[in-house]
Amino acid sequence: MQIPAKGLPKSEILQMLESFKQNDLAWRSGRVLAYTYDPGAEVDDVAKAAYLMYLTENALDPTSFPSVVKLESDVVRMVIDLLRGDKNVVGSFTSGGTESILLAVKAARDWARVHKPHIKQPEFVVPRTAHAAFHKAAAYFGLTINVAPVNASSYLADVDAMRARITDNTILLVGSAPGYAHGAIDPIEDIAALAQEKGLLCHVDGCVGGIHLSLMRRMGYALPAFDFTVPGVTSISADMHKYGYSPKGASIVMYRNKELRRHQLFACAASTTYALINPTILSTKSGGPMAGAWAVLHYLGEEGYARVVRGVMDTTARMIDGISQIDGLRVLGKPDMCMFSIASGEFNIFQLADEMKLRGWYLQPQFSIEGLPANLHITVTQNSATVVDEFLAALRDAVAAVKKDPNPIDANEIRTNIDALLAQPGEAPLKELAAMLGIDGTRLPERMALLNTVLDAIPDDLAEEVLTDFLNDLYA
Hints:
The radius of gyration is 23 Å and the shape is globular. Among the domains are: about 50-295, Type I PLP-dependent aspartate aminotransferase-like (Major domain) (Aspartate Aminotransferase, domain 2, 3-Layer(aba) Sandwich); about 410-475, no CATH class. It contains 16 helices and 13 strands. Helix 4 (about 95-115) crosses helix 5, helix 10 crosses helix 12 and helix 11 crosses helix 12 (about 390-405). A 7-stranded mixed beta sheet has the order 1-7-6-5-4-2-3, with helices on both faces. Strands 10-11-13-12 form a 4-stranded antiparallel beta sheet. By secondary structure, the protein is an alpha/beta fold.
């Protein structure tokens, strides 16, 4: 592809862009139960207008655009207030939950270089349900990640198992509020107490739920403690672009004090270029996401957020109650907020995802691991309220279709075949596996159940290789 010889008119460009969206998920329909968080048309309009006002302002140099510094500071202080941080708690505006987590781990590593200089290969401990971004942080920053099993019925972190994985090189413990997969809050008080006992840092991943749960608490919902009121919690991440309903590219990473945040920062004066000082990973950083987040916080206010939270939680209760009446399905654990997962002991859950997709619904597949079952994740947002009955009807119909399938995909049989295949020497098994997956490097099959079942059955490291190769071929 080349740059056009002559420029195109605006109308044609916008028409082309609109056409590219034809195969995207119709997320405003309420039928996409993952990835997206619809704030509603009015909030969206305000957020977009604010975003565009600051689209080209650059947060790279705080002296050039002081208004951007104000936007960031205002948003950070409001989120700190939600997480019940005192005046000593500080934070930074990042591009998303992954960047916030990366920075929290990087800060912990550099803190340990000062306070635990004897540690040459730092380690940190996470529950199996911790977000994959922690594994990414370990890979990026050269740390060892020690993963502890979780309670097999509650899906909560097992603090005794975490204790058993602490070594002389451990610098950080992690808990989630909530864990993305099952929507349950880890025992943060116990994890933080363990961190204090061992002289470690403790990070709470509140990326998906930090805003929503804080509002629930203010509204009187009974929740386990997870914020800065918990002694021993040293950092928290919380995304504005999830249940804060601001435009994408907005998360906050917060620290107990400035001394700890200092280990996140980067400065360089050893170049012929301008002196560089970065609070986060990015250098160039549009003011758009900051303005969008600032605008949404002010437009909704606590009253507006409370209205949204109450509606979403009521919708979640209706969904869970309806699912509990469908034979063959169960909700995993006890979700604390408006996200949860469903599984089945009777049929292949990935086939259910395909059947729901045929009916116009998207549910997010999640693989099994360490005895925890494969499942479908459901994220409930305010636009889900209008489609609950429709969703439950489609789900009942889809379950019936899977049960009647004359050629069901047997996960146990596939595991047996894969074990035999991988036991063979050489590269031939890998080629046969690629053929079994049914992908050619540029597109995925319409029905994903077989692909997901195979990926679920093969070892994690091999699945990661397959996914990496696919992604490497997908993009230019």
